[in-house]
Amino acid sequence: MNAIDAQLLLVDDDPAAIHAMRRMLPEYTNLRFAASGAEALRLARALPPDLIVLDARMPGLDGLAVCAALRRDPLLCEVPVIMATAQEPSALELEAIEQGVADFVTKPLVPDTFRARVRAQLRRRPRLAAPAAPVPAARRPALLIVDDDVAAVHLLGTALQDLGTVHFVTEGDAALQRAQDIQPDLVVLDAHMPGLDGFEVCQALKGHATLHTVPVVFVTRYDDAACETRALDLGAADFISKPYAAPVLRARVRNLLELKRRTDAELRAVRERWRRLADARLADAVRTASDAVLSCDDGLQVVFANAAAERLFARPAGALVAMSLSELLPEPAALLAQAGQAPLRLLVTRPDGQQLPAEATASTVVDSGGRLTTLVLRDTSDRERLEAALRARAAAEATSQAKTRMLGVIAHEMGNPLHAVLGFAQLLRRQLGPSVPEAAAASLEQVGHGARRLERLLEDLREFARHESGALQLTLADVDLAACVAGVLQALEPLAQQAGVQLAALPAPVTPLRVRADGRRLHQCLTNLVSNAIKYNRRGGRVTLDVAPDAGRLRITVQDDGLGMDAQQQDALFEPFNRLGRERSNIPGTGLGLVITRQLVLAMGGDLRVVSAAGTGSSFSIRLPAA
Question: Which residues neighbour 501 within 8 Å (Cβ) at sequence distance 6 or greater?
């Protein structure tokens, strides 16, 4: 079954989270959704999915309860589950993995990494149409640790020694030879090492004839999304960042070893089943294989070509059979010398001159009828395009980081001369005194006004750069929402009066509502939302603030009846410096206020939701944990 045809069940009580996951998985056409644990079980039992993405915290049956019910159901016990949570994952992650959860991700989801983990789980799930085979007496698993840091090797060996026999090497080149010698059941791999790095080692293992089914777990201090996505797309089974919790590491490795044991048993059953098939059925399977298959005799003349070979070489099978292997492939002797070894990369040239990259493996059988050499060739065009896209993405991320650092430097370096402009404008105004001409006073007022706008822009740039670089600092405490809202309304009342907009706060509940947040940052977020509601409103319009409990959290809603936004504007709402086509208006702004507000809300453990329609106003809701 093609991965895009896989049945996925997405479970979350938050419709916005479901919508976000659906947008992250556009290539999957068979998506189903559930808003509760009970609904998830009903849908799974009606049609067992290939993968379930499950929210950890939901009303009623939470994620752990749903997982336990799945494991008790014989039809669903093998379905892999990816659990997602917005909370600190350490203790919950261990409990979830021990209950059989295949993977664990933290909200907010990173699109590339989330897609890579979904693909990895769909790859790992056994799809072999074979009856369950008896499992032979278990041998002690062999674990291979590859890390150039001897101290890290020692810590990993200590954490995993009770799961199997631990072997280790400190170089990537040595890892490949050692893996061929001991045939490990699992490889623990560092990402960045001198010489052959972890990504190259993983790629070599996945391309090896006898090692490609061995699960690879990256354990590395490089925890950025690009490295994680690259590792998973190369075939890694898991990606764990240092420092790690030893119990969680052991639980993940234990699950992978169990999956490897079951997969090996199924592979043995499949090999035995295929051995017993009639020659006609075997030949039919070869003819319809997705990889190109060519067989040639002692004189390297092609004697068999399947349908995939026709597509790869753009020639009919009859024409291929009449040709010599040297007419189709460069240096066939070198390829045949690689028989039984790692795949050889080469270029296939079609009749029209187009060249396609491919990987080829060769095997030879000698019997009384002579020597028969069979080549299996795989078109790697899509994979190389993916690798190129990953490199381009990494370069784009590096450029983005450089831009963020540059913005921080610009904002810092412009601050001193700006303060000088403000200071000297104020000094000049005091020196001139009451006798200053009206035109000069107006000019000085414009200087001050422009400098203050520039000061606000620089502060926005500094705030944006701090978050992008990971330097944002928060001090969480219990915050009185009523006092915070009152302070915001009082500060913005002059702006509202000037714009002809009415500010109003709905009556607060009798019980005081307190939220867990950074008080100064929450005030900044509400100020951004209310000032936007005023600026983009109409004269005579209204802005209301409402505070209410919401599913164990507290919700602060800012509602206006102003310009509103269409769907296209909402899609670009949180793009930095994007003013949604309103930069030509007289309304001041930088396009950073909402971006910073969303960053701050997420950093405080909350979420920001938007409901809007063009011409009817907008509603922005912040949800934060209750104190």
Answer: 533, 534, 537, 538, 539, 540, 541, 542, 543
- For residue 465, what are the contacts with CB-CB under 8 A and spacing of at least 6? 404, 405, 407, 408, 411
SS3 200: helix
Four-way CATH pick for 477-625: 3.65.10.10, 3.30.565.10, 2.60.40.1180, 3.30.200.20: 3.30.565.10
Please choose, from the candidates 470, 554, 474, 475, the residue with its C-alpha nearest in 3D space to the C-alpha of residue 512.
554
C-alpha 54/C-alpha 85 separation (Å) is: 9
- pLDDT tens-place string over residues 405-457: 665 556 555 656 766 666 767 777 777 777 777 777 777 677 766 666 566 66
3 state DSSP class of 487: helix
Closest C-alpha among 92, 20, 187 to residue 610: 20
**Bond from prior residue into 80 cis (ω within 30 degrees of 0):** no
What is the rounded distance in angstroms from the CA atom of residue 501 to the CA atom of residue 40? 46
Question: Comparing C-alpha atoms, which of 117, 343, 324 is closest to residue 238?
Answer: 117
Cα 136 off chain centre by:
38
Reported confidence tier of residue 325, pLDDT bands at 50, 70, 90: confident
Cα 475 to chain centroid distance, Å, stands at: 28
- Residues 446-476 have pLDDT tens digits of 776 666 656 666 666 666 666 665 666 788 8
Question: So what's the pLDDT on residue 189?
Answer: 93
CB proximity list for 176: less than 8 A, separation 6 or greater: 196, 201, 204, 205, 208
HSE (side-chain half, CA atoms, 13 Å) at 357: 8
pLDDT range class, residue 51, cuts 50, 70, 90: very high
Angle at which helices 172-182 and 198-206 pack, to 10 degrees?
Answer: 30
Same fold, 3-124 and 280-379: no
Residues 555-591 pLDDT 10s: 899 999 988 888 888 887 877 766 665 655 556 556 6
User: What is the CATH topology of the domain spanning 142-275?
Assistant: Rossmann fold (3.40.50)
Pair 12, 59: CB distance under 8 Å: no
Where does the pLDDT of residue 338 fall: very low under 50, low under 70, confident under 90, or very high at 90 and above? low
Q: Give yes or no for a contact between 143 and 184, defined as CB atoms under 8 angstroms apart.
A: yes
Residue 465: the pLDDT is 61
Domain edges within the chain = 3-124, 142-275, 280-379, 383-468, 477-625
Q: Are 391 and 452 in contact (CB under 8 A)?
A: no
CATH superfamily of 3-124: Response regulator (3.40.50.2300)
Domain 383-468 has CATH 1.10.287.130: yes
Residue pair 485/558 in contact by the 8 Å Cβ criterion: no
Strands (E), 185-343: 186-189, 216-220, 238-241, 292-296, 302-305
CATH classification code of 280-379: 3.30.450.20
Residue 31 main-chain phi, psi, to 5 deg:
-105, 135
pLDDT band at residue 12 using 50, 70 and 90 as cut-offs: very high
Helix H segments across 436-518?
A: 438-468, 481-499
What percentage of the chain carries pLDDT values higher than 70?
79
Return left, alpha or beta for 438; rule: phi > 0 is left, psi -120 to 50 is alpha, else beta.
Answer: alpha
